[in-house]
Amino acid sequence: MTCSDGPLLLTSAGRRVSLLRLWQRAAAVRHRAVYTTDLDSLAPAVLLVDRSFPLPRVKDPAYLPELLRQVETLRLSLIIPTIDTELPVLARSAGQLRAAGACPLISEEAFIDLCNDKWAFGRAFAEDGFDTAAAWLPEEALDLGDALPRDLFIKPRDGSASQHAYALTRSELSETIPRVPNAVVQERLRGDEITIDALLDFSGQLLHYVPRRRIRTVGGESIEGETIDDAPFAPWLQGVLSAAGRRGARGPLTAQAFLTERGPVLTEINPRFGGGYPLGYAAGAHYPEWLLALAVGEAVQPRLGDYVRGLYMTRHYEETFTTRRPW
């Protein structure tokens, strides 16, 4: 995939100011601009760029035609998605977007669909030889009754941002299932939960990763974290990410796992930048720079294990002021 040298677009940019600034820094070296889009005209990332514009909601039939119009009008070159609901739409329309002149920074459609179904995802990676959380659909879980583990976790198969996700015991299952749309029931894992920022090139080769521990989260997003040493699980991690590449993963990934007594257990992969990615960047994961190089056909060599261990991140609020709404 080779893209033009026009402006970049960060979609659904919202409050992702740290990610925006990282892309602006990388783009400035190549004398390129970063634009943003969001539903909210007062979203901070909308106010901190030279050009921004609204798009319809991603499920609106007008979303893709308007995005294609903006691609052609503004000569956009690279589309960088930030939320899960955009990914299937952008993957299905990747050919149209490329024909209009913009490369979506997106995994293959089949991999995105797999990641959006947590039950199918676990089964697929278990077939690839990796330990994943034991999982049951609601009917199967209710039929198993006392044969289930005592401690469970329930969440939507297609959920994100920790919405409708609950820790519970086996005895609470029947009363909790109706509260969770499109539910999947999983064993409740014990151990340190880790997140991995990773980058694959456009052919699916693993280039880099940074594992980190989420010390504190709000709404499923890390606000305090620490990078950790990969030595105890590096072969496993490289195997998982390489398997993701064979299944169609491309570009940035955010994987999650537990380090348990039985070894690492994979729980999910989100094929996009994670909310805590700025910690990975500070530790050496300079993915915007590397992705811009890849997008114009430059070679980027793997840097496995090349990152700062023991780096902490903590976040704070910062205000932006304006006397004029962009729209």
UniProtKB/TrEMBL annotation:
Recorded coiled-coil stretches: none
InterPro entries tied to this protein: ATP-grasp (IPR011761), ATP_grasp_subdomain_1 (IPR013815), PylC_N (IPR048764)
Keywords: ATP-binding, Nucleotide-binding
Domain ATP-grasp: start-end pairs: 122-296
Gene3D superfamilies from the UniProt entry: 3.40.50.20, ATP-grasp fold, A domain, ATP-grasp fold, B domain
Signal peptide residue numbers: none
GO molecular function, one term: ATP binding
The protein's name: Carbamoyl-phosphate synthase large subunit
Organism encoding this protein: Deinococcus reticulitermitis
